[in-house]
């Protein structure tokens, strides 16, 4: 029996050694933002980041009704800070994936579930106005849109851009809430 316990403890310790460290806000500007303010897409968000919450958004594309799933992630240290101060700290990164859905009837009823990734949005909190000449930065945040068909580079050149790249237009309703929709995260952000 003691051999079995020792094997479980050693196996667990080995697994912990292989786990990636959770991203921290103090490394944001060296990991995810270059010296010009270009934002990169963080890797492994679903494995290494904290899931803030999800939104189900009813859409209409090409005249057809649909449903998208928006899932939002951040660093665990950003959540800790938010719970204490009711705002996101300098260096916080919010990552939102938007996926289409598929549906089918299961024994539990008709279900919709996320399938193909459509777009990923990234917001980086900037309390210091680090990039005043970069139009992808404004109102205390850096804004980025990543198209999965064009990996590696943000498509955002101006956060008040056109069409799907108009961060300002979507976020203006939450201007008084530091430009962030937090309704879907109340359970995790409440102290």
From TrEMBL:
Gene3D superfamilies: Cytochrome P460
Extent of the signal sequence: 1-19
Keyword annotations of the record: Signal
InterPro entries: Cytochrome_P460, Cytochrome_P460_sp
Coiled-coil zones: none
Pfam families: Cytochrome_P460 (PF16694)
All copies of domain Cytochrome P460, residue ranges: 49-182
Protein name: Cytochrome P460 domain-containing protein
Species this protein is from: BD1-7 clade bacterium
